Amino acid sequence: MEWEAWFRDKTFTTDWTSVNFANWTTHLSKFRDRALAVLEIGSWEGRSATFFLEFLPRCRITCIDTFEGGAEHADLDQTVVSSTEARFDGNLASYGQRVRKIKSRSLPALDRLTQDNEAFDLIHIDGSHSRDDVLLDSLLAWRLLAAEGVCIWDDYTWGLRDRAPAERPREAIDAFLDLHIAELRILYTGPQIIAEKRPTAPTAGYNPAAYPRSAANLIRFLRRRPMRF
Q1: Half-sphere CA count of 182, side-chain side, radius 13 A
Q2: Which of 46, 127, 175, 211 is most buried (CB neighbours < 10 A)?
Q3: What is the pTM of this model?
Q4: What is the mean pLDDT of the segment spanning 138-166?
Q5: In CATH, what class is 24-198?
Q6: Structural domain boundaries of the chain?
């Protein structure tokens, strides 16, 4: 496989990602020669980010991660978890300015990107696996996805046998798809969900930066209801 050489000089302790590469190659081929912006929520050691940077040689990627691990990493050696950021930095160092690292929880990071009016052509959601966190990540990331952009949700089938619904992504992804089905076209359903955002006109007069950042407005924002001054 062409991608095997991309990882030879890098350091990884896990590989939960390469099983998806063939599928990504199929569904991301339209982006191959384009200069595009990629957003990744949850980067771990940088294996998926490396794939995007190599497969999409003109892209730039923004990676959001706390690098502290999550509940799904509880069974790992904690010395491995504590050194994750160092491996991420080393693995992506050669890509220089093509990589922007945001060390943060996803909610404030996504809010800041929204306030800055950023937009992305490809978004990979692979952060916290809890239902409520995945739903929040999906709702906030969707507003950042450009028309005809692609969103990849990881771990759609993760935890179905051994995790309660509140501890796994599937219910959140399904809820999001139900809410936004008119705005997207599903490209792939399996261990991951891949969807393309349909072209839509922007909401007239919508400017999230004009409204106070209150808890009440966050709830209205997530429910797609008008915010208040």
Answers
A1: 2
A2: 46
A3: 0.85
A4: 95
A5: alpha beta
A6: 24-198
